[in-house]
Amino acid sequence: MFIPIILGTAREGRQSEKAAQFVLEEVLKYGLESEILDVRDFRLPATDASKQSDVAKKLAEKITRADGLIVVSPEYNHGYPGELKMMLDMLYTEYAHKPLGICGVSMGGLGGVRMVEQLRQVATELHMVNIREAIYFSGIQNLFENGKIKDESFGGRVKTMLDELVWYANTLKQGIK
Amino acid sequence: MFIPIILGTAREGRQSEKAAQFVLEEVLKYGLESEILDVRDFRLPATDASKQSDVAKKLAEKITRADGLIVVSPEYNHGYPGELKMMLDMLYTEYAHKPLGICGVSMGGLGGVRMVEQLRQVATELHMVNIREAIYFSGIQNLFENGKIKDESFGGRVKTMLDELVWYANTLKQGIK
Amino acid sequence: MFIPIILGTAREGRQSEKAAQFVLEEVLKYGLESEILDVRDFRLPATDASKQSDVAKKLAEKITRADGLIVVSPEYNHGYPGELKMMLDMLYTEYAHKPLGICGVSMGGLGGVRMVEQLRQVATELHMVNIREAIYFSGIQNLFENGKIKDESFGGRVKTMLDELVWYANTLKQGIK
Amino acid sequence: MFIPIILGTAREGRQSEKAAQFVLEEVLKYGLESEILDVRDFRLPATDASKQSDVAKKLAEKITRADGLIVVSPEYNHGYPGELKMMLDMLYTEYAHKPLGICGVSMGGLGGVRMVEQLRQVATELHMVNIREAIYFSGIQNLFENGKIKDESFGGRVKTMLDELVWYANTLKQGIK
């Protein structure tokens, strides 16, 4: 089962990279195939849903093969990063019937939850299935030490999300055949 | 397959009843079992998630048996009616893994879409699956004549919603067993 | 300056009452006139925007006299309590050009922020002015001891909210005259 | 009074340009100073809130001088265009206490209302004041003929928005001095 992880910010000095790396390790440990799709590698200067660009083709290959999707992204001014939205808007039908798990990242105490809520609205339009479980990386700037997460409860949270994500991925596939 | 329809307003003179009645007829025509769950019959004076009230028990019986759910509701001040929220908040686990289709109703031209978006956020927390298709009954006060809908395209819209709702209901059931 | 506080849940055993009581004390200490408008005293069995009910008249008297408004409310299933919505929907023009500060309450760690966001959308339709500052009472069940708040930083948070609320109340009044 | 108009999409073949041009004419006719701030002229490859880039400096000059702001933008997959979000995220304090009017644009019948709602959530975090009035350019692809808008009621809608925007701009300025 292939569950890629979209890293949703290209900002210089981004903290979300640590969270994405941690989630990737947990997903691999869980026994799934995965990789990080870094928004830095999927950029266009303007929204383009034509699917004709090279990056759109590269993204389409990944999303088509994916059984589900995880997004790890910070919240900027209560919304999602612009570069993440432009990346998602490159495709449309490729997302259909795939479950989505969202991990919010913030410096403050609310873990990017408003970004999570806005992104879920977008995902519904993309025919994705929002799972209930989300993960909130609050206080990201103090959460990691030497590349290791300090709060060990996050391992269990990712596992809970993956249980649900994998259940949906397996179940939805039975409807598509 | 049992797809009940929640009528989400108890307001005197409610227009949404006509839309709910129309949707019910289309759902029956489609070959599904259905009935209207009128919020007037599921009221409490305060939010109560104890599931101990008689109306909560009556609702639990219906939701447990349901394969999916349709809500027909007006938008009041860009949100959902309070009585609808109190009704939904009576239960929790009963909703899990069931698809939800929402029909918005408004006097104006935007068909209750903001209520639809807010309700979808609630539904995700209830572990329901939001389907992409929604129906927008704009200008409800002029949409019916002698109990018949004047714009015949709504029949096709309900069918499109039901196709998706039934697909999800059938598919999700395979994961639950 | 009169800044009443709406307590937005009528649920048996509600925890938000402690938060509302705390906010009331801080508002009085700040030198403002205030009182709690308890949703238990402003209930109707169905949404009614006719303004003809006794409770609507009682609420209209309070809101008309208010210079701004604070809502203290829990989040139920990622939305606002139904009884709060029915209370707010009783009126319309009375709210115009008044600033609104929202205090979210939750048992979990996100302080009712999703309720805050949904309520802000409603407030915009009511012509109210959403101030940026909000207060999040996370883990409410452990936040008070013998009627005193254990985390003293909340005093400063209420003051920050009131600074902004009072600035808006004073400023907006100059436009109305 | 200076009320610039942000054109929020850089997409090839964008239809929103016609709506922005129409709004500009109406704003000038109303007697205000205005100009279009085209997102094509305010682009960065990644979110950058450092305010150090040339485009951020150019934008800061405009926003600082503005008494209020209008955004004209399409809705893409129920959200705002990524390039618009990256443009707004360039600044922060410059937006404070300024009113915002949003014009949604869509090919379908709902006029970009979901983008409007998401953008309002962002604007609250930017300390802007969301005015109630919004304008919905539904069916944009058929709305203009030879550069003229076919539905003349839009002139009145812009006027209603400007009445409110100017009232807020004038009123809020009195609080800042």
Give an account of the 3D structure:
4 copies of one chain form a homotetramer. Chain A is of the alpha/beta class. In chain A, a hairpin with a 2-residue loop joins strand 7 and strand 8 (148-149). Chain A has one domain: Rossmann fold (3-Layer(aba) Sandwich), CATH 3.40.50.360. In chain A, strands 1, 2, 3, 4, 5 and 6 form a 6-stranded parallel beta sheet that branches. In chain A, strands 7-8 form a two-stranded antiparallel sheet. Helix content of chain A is 40%, strand content 16%. The first copy, chain A, has 5 helices and 8 strands. The B-D interface holds B 78, 109-111, 113-114, 117, 136, 138 and D 78, 109-111, 113-114, 117, 136, 138.
Can you lay out the helices and strands and say which pair or pack?
The structure is a homotetramer of 177-residue chains.
Chain A: E1 5-7, H1 16-29, E2 36-38, H2 54-65, E3 69-74, H3 82-88, E4 99-105, H4 113-125, E5 129-130, E6 135-137, E7 144-145, E8 148-149, H5 153-176
Parallel strand pairs in A: 1-2, 1-3, 3-4, 4-5, 4-6
Antiparallel strand pairs in A: 7-8
Fraction in helix of chain A: 25-40%
**CATH third-level topology of chain A:** Rossmann fold
The main β sheet of chain A shows up as: 6 strands, parallel
Biggest interchain interface, per-side counts: A-D, 34 and 34 residues
Percentage of residues in strands of chain A: 15-25%
CATH class of chain A: Alpha Beta
Q: How far from one another are the termini of chain A?
A: 16 Å
Question: Structurally, how many domains make up the residues of chain A?
Answer: 1
CATH architecture of chain A: 3-Layer(aba) Sandwich
